[in-house]
Amino acid sequence: MILVILFWILVIVPLAGGNLHRLLEARLANQGLLLIVYVLQAFARSRFGHVYLLGPWSVLAWSCLSGVLVVLLWRSKNVCGVSIMILGVVLNMLVVLLNGAMPVALQSWIEVSPKDFYRIASAGDSLLLFGDVLPFGEYSLVSLGDLLLVVGVAAFVLSSSMGQSCRRGWRMLVCLGGR
Predict the structure, then answer these.
(1) N or C end of the chain: which has fewer CB within 10 A?
(2) Closest to 9 in 3D by CA, of 130, 121, 155
(3) Phi–psi pair at 79, nearest 5 degrees
């Protein structure tokens, strides 16, 4: 996902007539804290080989950090793309909390063989549609929430780099409270 976001920043923004300097000037509320929480959230579900750093605590730690991320993002909800980012985080958090782990499609499980934070999806899982059931690349898994996060970040990057705020029209789709 990080590579997709970097692609947007380095390739699509200049092609769309955006300015990378404007993007660097874009501000979100609690920007530094957002970055720290995002990194901690990634750490909570990271692993070395097949061992998760936090073991069975990874789901609880990740879920708590996701909640903090939603609260911090909410303070910038009027910034283009942030409402979609919030929706992506909430969908991921709901499916993990309701299932005690992120359900993963069997074919994806075989490709990455995760444990602790992830588990094989079953018919009885809640909100299975929102689990990591979509293969993305050779070794990655994505959920609808992940895709919404990418769309939200792309909207933020593109609108910020073009010096635009959310206005009526198509941007309202990604700026629910947009200005």
Answers:
(1) C
(2) 155
(3) -85, 135
Strands (E), the chain: 47-48, 51-52, 102-104, 118-120, 134-136, 140-142
Report how far residue 116's alpha carbon sits from residue 45's, in angstroms, rounded to the nearest whole number.
9
Looking at the chain, how many residues does it have? 179
For 57-69, write each residue's pLDDT tens digit: 788 889 999 999 9
Nearest to 26 by CA among 125, 156, 177, 173: 156
- The strand pairing partners of 120, in sequence order, are 104
Per the CB < 8 A criterion, the answer to whether 103 and 122 are in contact is yes
Residues of the chain with pLDDT under 50: 168-174, 176-179
pTM of the model: 0.80
> Hey, is 117 helix, strand or coil?
coil
pLDDT tens per residue across span 12-49: 778 878 787 887 788 888 988 998 998 888 888 776 55
Place of tokens 């980012």: 85
3-state SS, residue 14: helix
For 41-51, letters b (16+ CB in 10 Å) and e give beebbebeeee
Q: What is the pLDDT of residue 172?
A: 47
